[in-house]
Amino acid sequence: MTDRLRGLLDTSVLIDHDLLDPELLPDESAIAAITLAELAAGPHATDDPVERASRQDRLIWATATFDPLPFDHHAARAYGLVFAALKAAGRTSRSRFADLLIASTAVANNLAVYTRNRRDLEGLELLIKVFEV
What we know:
Elements: E1 6-9, H1 11-15, E2 28-30, H2 33-41, H3 49-65, H4 73-88, H5 97-108, E3 112-115, E4 130-132
Parallel strand pairs: 1-2, 1-3, 3-4
Helix pairs in contact: 2-5, 4-5
């Protein structure tokens, strides 16, 4: 398994990053390329110009701060495990597809996931360690 020294921050953690206690985060943080995709969509998902600017700033900060882990063939294979675990838990993968791709990236890189929405990853406990912050 993994420890609290290294972890993959999901999108919810990046959105609230400046509000979080740094002690709750791993010593070494990474993000997934899927997270950057979600952040890139964020400014287009609001009509509020102030919120749009805030989301654009978050994207620029994340891009400058992290070298994202790719969704590569290892993550693609890990997605099969994630899908199977969800199915075994009686959950569907449809509504949280991006979260599951991020979880697959974590599995492929042997990293814990740090999230603000632990419920999104219920059923994956045998594959990854999940820390809610």
